[in-house]
Amino acid sequence: MTTPLRLGIAGLGTVGVGVVKIIRQKANLLAARTGRPIVITAVSARSRDKDRGVNLADYAWEDDPVDLAKRDDIDVFVELMGGHEGPAKDATEAAIAAGKDVITANKALLAIHGQALAEAAEAKGCVIRFEAAVAGGIPVVKSLTEGLAGNDITRVMGVMNGTCNYILTRMQDAGLPYDEVFAEADALGYLEADPNLDVGGIDAGHKLSLLSSIAFGTKVAFDGVELEGIQRISIEDINQAADLGYRIKLLGVAQLTGRGLEQRMTPCLVPADSPLGQLTGGTNMVVLEGDAVEQIVLRGPGAGEGPTASAVMGDVCDVARGLRISTFGVPVGALESTQPAQSNSPAPFYLRMALLDRPGALAKVATVLGEFGISIDRMRQGQHDGSEAPVLIVTHKTQRSALNEAIAAMSSTGVLASDPVALRIENV
Amino acid sequence: MTTPLRLGIAGLGTVGVGVVKIIRQKANLLAARTGRPIVITAVSARSRDKDRGVNLADYAWEDDPVDLAKRDDIDVFVELMGGHEGPAKDATEAAIAAGKDVITANKALLAIHGQALAEAAEAKGCVIRFEAAVAGGIPVVKSLTEGLAGNDITRVMGVMNGTCNYILTRMQDAGLPYDEVFAEADALGYLEADPNLDVGGIDAGHKLSLLSSIAFGTKVAFDGVELEGIQRISIEDINQAADLGYRIKLLGVAQLTGRGLEQRMTPCLVPADSPLGQLTGGTNMVVLEGDAVEQIVLRGPGAGEGPTASAVMGDVCDVARGLRISTFGVPVGALESTQPAQSNSPAPFYLRMALLDRPGALAKVATVLGEFGISIDRMRQGQHDGSEAPVLIVTHKTQRSALNEAIAAMSSTGVLASDPVALRIENV
């Protein structure tokens, strides 16, 4: 038996504890699979005294994760704290400076500082692995970086935030308004400390930007992700979409176009009977398209102790087996800079608005759409509710830019009671 | 730039040509991803003169793949010929004896001789990689061996023969009988030279036995796969299943139980609106279940030039990047021997039979089922067609062994016009 692989684990929340449990329970299996013992040398977390239901007595304790990262007796720094600044960043930088490999579940850290960290790691000959940062237990980073390495990747899509998908599914199933389901999710502990990371699409945007980088060999460009959260999705939207045969999903799409790198994470309508439409609860789904492989779809749990720890352990076993891959699939100097490209491929759109009760209001809206070259596939006006009437329009294929201009022009006609909700329809 | 990785490719059919094309078209991309040039040194196929639409002039030619396998100027022998005896076996053995790594798409070879080949490879320090042997473009071997390496795998399931799925889907969509669709598939070139490999479930059984070995750390046990082909599935079965809300799929299931290793590849009824039920045409789907990850579902094209070449290239890039993993995930000496266990977990069954036109025939059948403790969920008798009447029974959960005994007992009552078709209902 060769040299053990020695881990220092920073962060003993749900995922950290899950990793400790697996390493304690499966020592023989892991050694058989990787050819060497995998051991924990030291751990670090905020509170030493908290009972985490797992025996930590065998491991050295560090109050400061930076001290953990620098220890001579660890080979791999496992960062499970989260947050893109502060201790997670400091300790990761310290680990790399000390020549340690890094395994992390931290999508925010890599989305913001991935380029600098990858440069530092490459200079030191370290690897950074982050399977657990994207889509929980689904081995999507591995599939993209390794399994599909013979492909020019043409598109990456996916539902990558389980909390948003839980909220949208629950609204549909229980017929409950957004605010009520949001409160439920909060009570269940499904939301990040800053809920906007989830419902604002930021967390999912972080993940998409990491997949884009690997897929297209481009620098991580989280700033270029067109982000729209689910906060404005009402139960009315859910129900109207269902009537039309659709479900609303927070869907990420990334593709490299002649105009630049298109990345969007926005609520979309997808067919109710499609694999994406059938995705319920916290489950994630990623669609990978390449010139050779055509299309691969991966589905699995997007979060939780077991699934996320499984992803971390996949990375641990890779490092133990000696796999050394550049952070984003190619040497950091080969990653290309890109311009962000607004998603402008034509698509049908769902448009919900409230019209003021004025003669000719509906005609004005229809006229404006026509002026911007947008033709109407379906239109429904509901009963007036006080001084407002709900109107639902499904357009034929149009560009988002034309739709935005049309919405601005509608607003200036003075017939809208509020800003319309406009959602792209993706017939995937 | 470090030393090139030099390939010798044996077999220039669809997949071989696909691999050559990728290596010619993507030299820079592959070198950036793996850190070294990937080059073809020599090739071998049956006919040197055939126009394959790709320029082979840069490569040495060998008439005999064994000679190719032994060449001093190749590092990796890429076996894309097929067949579990003859040239494919001889050349693979020769390559390993000469210390070459092996990449193969040959499920039959590994299902029959995998243990011996893995032993030889391990003794020589070579690796054998076979992503393309299972489920075409889906990176399932990688996901299982590497991504889920921190899991005890509890179950593997899947639809892994695109030809069978094409036939079953086409019967349903076009309302055509088996024989007619079989002839169509043959004309389209979808069938193996020996069609029984496809429609008899053998090819899919080979694949399942390879996944079982990786999943459970057991010796490849193709002999232990309970095999049933799709040849007896009639359009009547397809339609009856559809009426009940199901689709018929050739479904593989493997799990390690206290009684031994259960592996079956049999036609089953799955819910029409489930991901497996919605799988159409040549698409494959594999479901991987582990104690930590819960459940991962992978879907993608099961065959074809691009997808299969993509899988081969994933292995090529792994070898170029220096990944060295035991053939079946653990050292060959650690693979456990298992007893085959008949699948005996209770399930509802679909039972179609033709009764002779005799008084009390239906009562006799029902009585026999009751005698074996099998209760009936639904039963339909159709109109007599000449001297026979079609009868469809859906049982409550029962064991396959009890059902087999009941069927034998029914036969001895003399009321059956032919052997019943009994299909397990998997509510997955």
Mean pLDDT across all amino acids of chain A: 95
Tally of alpha and pi helices of chain A: 14
Number of folding domains of chain A?
3
Please name the CATH architecture of the largest domain in chain A: 2-Layer Sandwich
Q: What's the number of extended β-strand segments of chain A?
A: 16
Distance between the termini of chain A: 49 Å
State Rg of chain A: 24 Å
Poorly predicted sequence stretches spanning 5 or more consecutive residues of chain A: none
The level-1 CATH class of the largest domain in chain A: Alpha Beta
Order of helices and strands of chain A: EHHEEHEHEHEHEHHHHEHEEEEHEHEEHE
CATH fold naming of the largest domain in chain A: Dihydrodipicolinate Reductase, domain 2
Helix share of residues of chain A?
Answer: 25-40%
- Biggest interface, CB < 8 A: A-B, 60 and 60 residues
Please tell me about this protein's structure.
Two copies of one chain form a homodimer. In chain A, the strands form two sheets. In chain A, strands 7, 8, 9, 10, 11, 12, 13, 14, 15 and 16 form a ten-stranded mixed sheet that branches. Chain A has a six-stranded parallel sheet with strand order 3-2-1-4-5-6, with helices on both faces. In chain A, helix 4 runs parallel beside helix 5 (107-124), helix 7 packs across helix 8 (178-187) and helix 13 packs antiparallel against helix 14. With 428 residues, chain A is of the alpha/beta class. Chain A has three domains: 5-133, NAD(P)-binding Rossmann-like Domain (Rossmann fold), CATH 3.40.50.720; 140-303 and 326-334, Dihydrodipicolinate Reductase, domain 2 (2-Layer Sandwich), CATH 3.30.360.10; 349-425, ACT domain (Alpha-Beta Plaits). The first copy, chain A, is 36% helix and 24% strand. In chain A, strand 5 (101-104), helix 5 (107-124) and strand 6 form a beta-alpha-beta unit. Chain A contains 14 helices and 16 strands.
